[in-house]
Amino acid sequence: MAGIATAKINVVVKNDADTIYCDRLVYSVKTKTAICKGNVRIYTSDRIYRGDTMIYNMTTKAVQSADFRLSHYPSFVAGEEVTSPELNHYRIHNGFFSTDNRLYPAFRLHAETIEVYPDEQIVLKNCIIYIGDIPVFWVPIYAQSIRTDKEGYKWSAGYNGAFGGFFYNRYNWVLDDNLYATVMLDARETRGIGGGLNLDYGAPNGDKGLFRGYVTQDDLYSPGGGGGNDAYKFANVNGDKRYRFGVKERFEIMPDLTTTASLAKWSDPNITRDFFEGEYQREVQPDNFMNLVEYSPNFTISALARPQVNPFFETVERKPDITWDIPQQKVFDTPLSYVSESSVTAFDRRFAWNTNQIPTYGQQLQAQEYRAYRYDTFGQIMDPKQYFNWLSVTPRFGLRGTFWSDDNRTVPDTTAQGYTDPHPRGRVVPNMGLEADFKVSRTWDDVKNKDWGIDGLRHVMEPYMNAQYIPYVLGSRANDIRGFDSRLPSTQLQPLNFPAYNSIDSIDYQAVIRHGIRNKLETKRNGLNWDLVDWDLYADLDLDKNFSTTNQKYYSNVFSDLTIKPVNWIYFQSQTSLDVTGNSYTEFNNDLTWEPDRSVKVSVGNRYIEDSVLFPNSNQYYLNLFYRMNEHWQFSSKYNFEATTGQLQEQDYTIYRDLESWQVAANFTERKVNNGVNETAIYFTFTLKALPNAQITTNSLK
Questions:
Q1: Is 127:140 a contact under the CB 8 Å cutoff?
Q2: CB atoms < 10 A from the CB of 523, how many?
Q3: Radius of gyration of the chain from Cα atoms?
Q4: Distance, CA of 579 to CA of 559 (rounded, Å)
Q5: Which of 370, 512, 632, 702 has its CA 20 to 30 A from that of 682?
Q6: Residues 329, 340 contacting (CB under 8 angstroms)
C-alpha cells in the first residue's frame, strides 16, 4: 500500500536518536507513526519504553500502549495503558512508580493515574505506597521530581519518655527546582496529634525563602493534664493549642536593592524546645525584622523594622532604624581613608509578659517600658602607612555625635497616652586609635616527610596591637541614659574599633590596648600553602577598667585560638580563656576529630568553664563515634558526661541497616532533661536509599 511499510521478525528501525526493536511493525510515511507489536523496545536519547503493543510517533515522540514500561534513571514506571496528551507528557492508567529500578521492586507507589513529564517530574494520583506486597500508606496525590534526589516519603516510629509512643510522617513534594514542600502529620501517645507544612522556595537570581508552620493539640496542657507527665510541663505554657509559624525571605527588588525578613509567631516560648529541639538549639528566641538595603560601592542605606511579635519575649523595638554607611575609601588623592555611619532610630523597649496577661498601654508604662528617638552620626579618618618596609601602622581619629529625645531616667507619667515631660540628652565623643603589626618568618626547605605530606616548613610570626582611646565625653555619659542597645555580657572579647563596636548607648571613657601574637607553621601541598598550625594569642589592657562587661580589671583574660591540622584526617581546635589575675573565669573548648577513611570517624572534646558570672561551673566531655562495618551495616554513638556532677548527661546509639531499596535506622537515646528527669527515646526511621543522595537521618529526641 502506498505510504505504508511493513516488517516482521527481528525488526530494527533507526531514526535520528530513536531506535525501535519489535517482532512486527507497520509504519506510515505520511503520519510518521509506527505500530509495533511483540517484545517492543523503543530507545530514545535517554529513555527506554517497553511493552507488547505500542504506537510511536517519530515526530512528536508520542506513545500509546496497552502494556507500558518506562525507565528513566533513577525512576521506573509501568502501567496497563499509556497515552501521550502532548509532547514530553505521558499519562499512564493503573500503573506504579518506583526508584528501585528492577523488575520486582522492593517498594512501589501504585496509582490510578500517573502523569510523567520526562526530565521534570512524575505525579501520581490516588496513590497507595507498597513495601513488597504490603500496602502501608495512602495519599491522594504524590509528586516526585526527577531532577532532584530528595526523598518523597519518610516515616519514623518509636517511643519517647516525653511523648510515649509516636509515629511521624514526612510527605515531601518537589514541585520544581525552586519549590519544595513537606507535609507533616505526627501522632504522639500522650501529647496528641500535630501537623504542619514547610515550604522552601527560590529563584535563579538568588532570591530565596522558607516557610515553617506547625500546629499541635498538646494533651499535656489540656485541662486535667491529659494523662501526661507533669515533669515535662513548663509554667509559661498556658494552653493546649500550640503552634509556631515562621517566614524567612531574601529578595532582590533591583540589582542594588534587596530586602530580607524574618518573621516568627509562636504560641509560647517553649514550642520549639518541646517539638523541634534542633531549632531550639540554634535559636532560643526568634528574631523578627524586616530590612531594606540599597547598596552602591560608595554607600549603603538600610531601613530596618524590628517589632515585638511574641509578647513573652523581651524585645527592643526599632520602628524604624534607618542607617547610612560609607565604607572605608580614599579621600581624594591623599593617602588618607574615611569611614562614616549615621542613623536615626525610633526605639521602644518592650518587656516579656505572660501569654494570658498581655498588658494595656498604660500597664506597659507602669512597668517602665520606655521609648525614645536617637540620632547618631560618626566619622573617622585613617592614615595607613608602612615604615621600614616591614612595619604597618594605621592611626585613626574619629568624632561621634548622639542625641536622645528622652533619657528615660524618670518614671513616666501614666495618666496620659505618652510622656508629658521628656528629658532630651546629647553627647559628643572623640576617639583616637592606633593599629600596628609586622611579620617575621623563617623557612626550612630541607624538611620533608611524604607520610605526613611535609614539603618544607615555614614559621610565620605576627605581633600586633590595636589601641582605642576616648579621652572625654562631652555631655551625657552612659549611666545618664537608660539605653536600648546596651552591651550583652560575654566570655569573649568584644569588637574594639568603631563602627564594629555598635553598642552606641554604652560608649564611655575608654583606654584599651589589645595586643597579641599570631603564629603559623606552613608547608606546601599541591603547590599551595597548607597551615599545619595556626595559633592566635591575645589579651586586653583596660586602663580605665571600663571596657569589659564581666570583670572590671586592668588586665583581661588571656585568650588562645589554636588550630592544628597536620593531615586531612586529623583536626584539633582549641579555644581558651585563661584567668591570669585570679579574679575572673577560666574557659576551655577543645575538639579533636580523627577520620582515617570514610568508614571511621571519632570526635572527642571538652567544654569547661569555672567562676563565670554568666554560666554555672561545668566540665563536660563528649565522644562521638561512627563506624561503617561493611556495605550493609553502620553504627554511631554519642556520649556527653558532666564531670562536676559525675553524671552521664546523654547517651545515643544508632545502627543503620542497608535493605537494598531502603535504609532503616534504629536509635536509642537517654538523657537528662528538666530538673534532672531521665528521658528515654527509641526511634525507627526509614529512608529511601534508591535516591542517590538521600540522607540517612534519625529524628532528634523531641
A1: yes
A2: 21
A3: 33
A4: 9
A5: 632
A6: no
Which of 348, 401, 346 shows the shortest CA–CA distance to 374? Answer: 346
Report yes or no: 125 and 111 within 8 Å, Cβ to Cβ.
yes
Summarize the confidence of residues 356-360 as an average pLDDT.
53
Nine cell digits for residue 379: 566619622
Q: How far apart are CA 194 and CA 214, in angstroms?
A: 7
d(C-alpha 184, C-alpha 194), whole Å: 8
Banded model confidence at residue 489, pLDDT cuts 50, 70, 90: confident
Across the chain, mean pLDDT equals 83
pLDDT, tens digit (0-9, with 9 covering 90-100), for 430-468: 999 999 999 999 999 898 888 888 889 999 999 999 999
Nearest to 348 by CA among 260, 300, 408, 434: 408
Measured between its terminal Cα atoms, the distance across the chain in Å is 73
DSSP per residue, 424-442: -EEEEEEEEEEEEE--EEE
Paired residues of 246 in beta bridges? 212, 264
Q: Identify whether the C-beta of residue 44 lies closer than 8 Å to the C-beta of residue 17.
A: yes
CA 196/CA 169 separation, integer angstroms: 11
Q: Are strands 618-628 and 633-642 parallel, antiparallel or unpaired?
A: antiparallel
Sequence-distant (6+) residues with CB within 8 A of 694 are 149, 150, 151, 687, 688
With cell 523594622, the residue in question is 305
> SS3 string of 500-524?
CCCCHHHCCCEEEEEEEEEEEEEEE
Beta bridge partners of 201: 179, 209
3-state DSSP call for residue 664?
strand
**What distance in Å separates the CA atoms of residue 567 and residue 593, rounded to the nearest whole number?**
11
Q: What is the rounded distance in angstroms from the CA atom of residue 680 to the CA atom of residue 648? A: 13
- Residue 175 CB neighbour total at 10 angstroms: 14
- The residue ranges of DSSP E strands in 360-453, in sequence order, are 370-382, 385-387, 391-404, 425-437, 440-449
Alpha-carbon dihedral sign for residues 544, 549, 552, 553: negative
With 60 as the cut, is the pLDDT of residue 369 above it? yes
Q: Are 661 and 689 in contact (CB under 8 A)?
A: yes
Three cell numbers, residue 124: 501520581
Query: Does residue 109 carry a pLDDT above 90?
Result: no
Which residue in 209, 312, 322 sits closest to 261, CA to CA?
A: 209
Note whether 204 and 174 are within 8 A (CB): no
Single pTM value for the model: 0.73
Q: How far apart are alpha carbons 431 and 510 in whole angstroms?
A: 9
Q: Cell numbers of 403, please?
A: 542625641
Provide the sign of the torsion angle of the four alpha carbons 501, 504, 506, 511, taken in this order: positive
Identify whether 135 is preceded by a cis peptide bond (ω within 30 of 0).
no
Set of cell numbers at residue 372: 525614645
Helix (H) or strand (E) holding 281: helix 277-282
Please state, in angstroms and rounded to a whole number, the distance separating the CA atoms of residues 668 and 160. Answer: 10
Instruction: List the one residue out of 330, 323, 314, 324 whose CA is nearest residue 367.
Output: 314
Residue 344 cell numbers, joined: 536615626
Environment class of 157 (CB within 10 Å of its CB; exposed 0-12, middle 13-18, buried 19+): middle
- What are the Cα distances from residue 419, in Å, to 361, 424, 444, 484, 651? 12, 12, 72, 17, 56
C-alpha cell at 277: 529541639
Q: Which of 506, 499, 492 is nearest to 540 (CA)?
A: 492
Q: How far is CA 177 from CA 149, 201, 325, in A?
A: 11, 9, 37
Question: Do 470 and 533 touch, CB atoms closer than 8 A?
Answer: no
Q: How many CB atoms lie within 10 A of CB 260?
A: 16
Q: Contact, 234 vs 220, CB < 8 A?
A: no
The pair phi, psi for residue 154, each rounded to 5°, is -145, 140
Within 222-309, residue ranges assigned H as helices are 271-275, 277-282
